[in-house]
Batch of 2 targets.
Target 1
Amino acid sequence: MAVQSSLPATLGAATRTMRLVHAALTAGVGIYVVVVAVLVRRPADPQAGAAAIGVLPYAFAAAAVGSLVALVVLRRKMMPAREPPAQLADRIADDDPLPEPARRALGKVFAASIVTWALAESVAIYGFVLGILLRDVRPMLPFAAVSIAVLLAYAPRRALLEAAVRAARR
């Protein structure tokens, strides 16, 4: 009995799937901000635990930087080989069936992208927790901004997928 592969059969299917997952994770960052803003309608008493509160933003910022470093290192290790197009006409059609090696390469790109996006979103989650602990949405905003910027920088691009397919075909 043949095992059915869950890897995308065409470049168009892979592109649509990756864009959907990316959009959901990016929208999640905005939802985190709204949740903190709704939960924290009044700021905490500035005198309560001032010493602990003063250290928290730095601790969470350090954790966020750690996530971003891990993102770069893991993405570099997880990405498959890529080959740029030799000429402009070297495009792959959306509905061209992909051979198994190309499908595996797309699976690696997808896995590396999911890890990248999860680590980028973790920066917003650190801000979310910080906003809840400090009972103020303002400390969360830089974390959310960095998270969205990184998510947009690593948005799924068709050229990346095509480059992985081209390298796998060689």
Target 2
Amino acid sequence: LTATVPPTSTPTSTATRGSDCIVPDDGILYILHNDIFNHRGPDGKELDLALFRMYPQWASFSQMLEWYEEPLSAGRVIEEASSKEPDLQVNSAVTLVTVGMLLNWQLPPDGDLFSQARAVSERLDDFYWEYFNWKHFNDNQDKETQSHYQDADNAATYAIYAFFEYDREVLSEWCETYQELFGQSPFRTP
């Protein structure tokens, strides 16, 4: 894997925050619909358009993956990392927002976006199935873990909530960022 990483610049977001993503201090959380989480999501070109509009420093990013003859844009890398394995299907938009927030929308310091995006997709998928198994099979878990499960309305919401270490403020920011980038709510089916 090789990557071209241009100099870093500050993110330039001009969108306003939406009010649909208010996460309560207590109560049941619902910010991401299961059908959206498991849907393939936007292709690389759509991801690039959304990403470059909000974070133009990503426009010059590219990464070479050994199974391609040409370097891929950030959106194509995210698409590859999100849904190219038979047993891994996380929406590419969900992966993009999660990786972006993890990197604070800065280019990956080592230039390896694919590995980071794949690790995020796999971890989100693990959290999704962990919740699903708890909900449907009521696996015995410690009390703290059970309380986190009970905070989330569904597996998709739990996956994001757990990924960001059960931080409701970050969960709200994730939801708002998704809406800003893609112009739609992550908790309403398309």
